[in-house]
Amino acid sequence: MKYRLICILMCLGMCLSVNAQENSCNDKEFMNELESKTSKIQTITCKFIQTQSISVLSNKVLKKGVFYYQRPEQILLSFNNGDYIKMTSEDFQMKNGDRINKMKVESNPMLRELKNILSACMTGKVMNSAKDFQHELKKGELKYTIIMTPKKKRVASKIKEIVLEFDRRNMCLNKMRMTQPNGDYTLYEFLDKELNKQIKQFDKQ
């Protein structure tokens, strides 16, 4: 459970099903729109819902909280129950109940790649970080959808597929879903975004 949560959050980081209006588009078109709309974003604050579907449990597990992002690579998921997950360019820290676990991002290549993807979603560099994944890009009237499958066996042993959905109005990440090889998945939905708002929470953790 611990490593499943770590993998998802590192990837992690923001539903309508793909419909007939969606069609494939080229990476350049997507990147131009993403970079032009995210270049001035310095911080993101929003609510999030985490939904976990685990085969051994009869019901899905839902948690809610507040997501914070600050350039260049500061990410904080603060759960309503007091737990949190904090990521920087070097460190990963998770509070679960009374326990706090810390590790170096660079010590685990898979975690490093997944963290890079989430940060890239916020800064408009997602395709650069997705180079180790096969991907399919679809364009809808209101959203872009990227479906990513890992090329490396080490990552593929933990992750079957990553799906990212971007809101075309501001190109912020709306949803992120990571599915494991056994079909278990975790979905993050990001709601009520506030852009470029001063964030003090990073100093409190």
Rg computed from alpha carbons, rounded to a whole number of angstroms: 16 Å
What composes the largest sheet?
A: 12 strands, antiparallel
Which structural class fits the helix and strand makeup? alpha+beta
- Look up the CATH topology: outer membrane lipoprotein receptor (LolB), chain A
SSE layout:
Layout: H1 2-10, E1 23-24, H2 27-38, E2 43-53, E3 61-70, E4 74-79, E5 84-87, E6 91-96, E7 99-104, H3 109-123, H4 126-129, E8 133-139, E9 143-150, H5 153-156, E10 161-167, E11 173-179, E12 185-195
Antiparallel strand pairs: 1-8, 2-3, 2-12, 3-4, 4-5, 5-6, 6-7, 8-9, 9-10, 10-11, 11-12
Helix pairs in contact: 1-3
Question: Could you please describe the fold and organization of this structure?
Answer:
There is one protein chain. The protein is of the alpha+beta class and 205 residues long. It has one domain (2-14, 16-189): Lipoprotein localisation LolA/LolB/LppX (outer membrane lipoprotein receptor (LolB), chain A, Clam), CATH 2.50.20. 21% of the residues lie in helices and 41% in strands. The protein has 5 helices and 12 strands. The chain has a 12-stranded antiparallel beta sheet with strand order 1-8-9-10-11-12-2-3-4-5-6-7. β2 and β3 (61-70) form a beta hairpin. α1 (2-10) packs parallel to α3 (109-123). The longest helix is centred in the middle third of the chain and has 15 residues, at 109-123. The radius of gyration is 16 Å and the shape is globular. Mean pLDDT is 79; it is low at 8-23.
